[in-house]
Specification:
single chain; 273 residues; mainly alpha; 13 helices; globular
């Protein structure tokens, strides 16, 4: 935690209570909301299937659970406030410097996006996790971090300040919904996917970092999604596109399992094999 990260958190938090300037990106905003009109196929991402499939993915990879971003040196750790700032707001929605520990390399984010868009099927969360672990060399926190940033860019396109070289146009957003599996009982697979990875990342990262600050933020994210929906609908008068409640809960569940029971899961799967 640094003075710079605290200074960054203030405008990010303030912007949550301000109307999003959708007039700056009208076609992007329209494309995001248009996904609500897309017919949802039977759900792939259910709690029962996810528990089994995510465990199998963990077992096949040589995974690491470290507190440092995989692209930085071992003595550089995730900043708990930067995790919060990155997770709660799009970078294009406020002025300020960019975080130093929560923005994976552009090439890795682009690779995840490319693999999603080139898939010939709707990728489940476990299949995305498999891709992400390959990209991040088995880093669990890194997989969640790239998943958060990449899926959010695909869903909303409001992070160009952080990733100016990753082009997102309205047709990309519309196309992405054909490649991400929906969640049970949810209307919009794009938003629900980035809600999942947001909560997977925050939960696993704060668990791994430990300490009172991380514990406090972890408690905050437990109620983060319903609070955000209330603020956007009744304070800002711009309701969120996706409810995100189920996917957020599943993200927290899987983040807790991956970060606290990793080795038990891997050993049990290997024994059964």
């Amino acid at each position: 935690m640094t003075i710079e990260s605290i200074q960054l958190a203030i405008p990010a938090t303030y912007s949550l209570f301000q109307p999003r300037r959708e007039y700056e990106k009208p076609e992007i905003a329209k494309a995001s909301r248009a996904n609500l009109d897309i017919k949802i196929t039977p759900a792939f991402n259910t709690e029962i299937s996810m528990l089994t499939e995510m465990a199998e993915v963990l077992a096949k990879h040589k995974v690491e659970l470290k507190s440092n971003p995989y692209w930085l040196s071992d003595n550089k750790f995730y900043d708990p406030i930067e995790i919060y700032t990155t997770s709660v707001q799009f970078f294009d929605c406020y002025n300020g410097t960019l975080p130093k520990t929560t923005l994976p390399p552009s090439k890795d984010v682009q690779e995840f996006i490319d693999k999603v868009l080139s898939s010939n099927k709707k990728l489940s969360i476990s299949e995305q996790f498999d891709i992400l672990l390959n990209i991040t060399n088995g880093s669990i926190l890194g997989a969640g971090n790239v998943g958060l940033v990449g899926s959010r860019i695909l869903a909303r396109g409001w992070d160009t300040k952080a990733y100016p070289n990753i082009a997102v146009i309205p047709s990309t957003i519309r196309e992405a919904s054909n490649h991400l599996a929906p969640f049970e009982g949810c209307k919009e697979s794009l938003g629900d996917t980035y809600y999942f990875w947001t909560n997977f990342f925050t939960t696993s990262a704060y668990n791994q970092l430990g300490g009172n600050i991380s514990k406090g933020f972890n408690q905050l994210f437990k109620i983060g999604t319903p609070v955000m929906r209330f603020v956007r609908q009744y304070v800002v008068m711009q309701p969120t596109v996706s409810s995100g409640c189920l996917s957020s809960d599943l993200g927290r569940l899987m983040g807790n399992i991956a970060s606290t029971h990793l080795y038990e899961i891997r050993n049990q799967i290997l024994i059964n094999d």
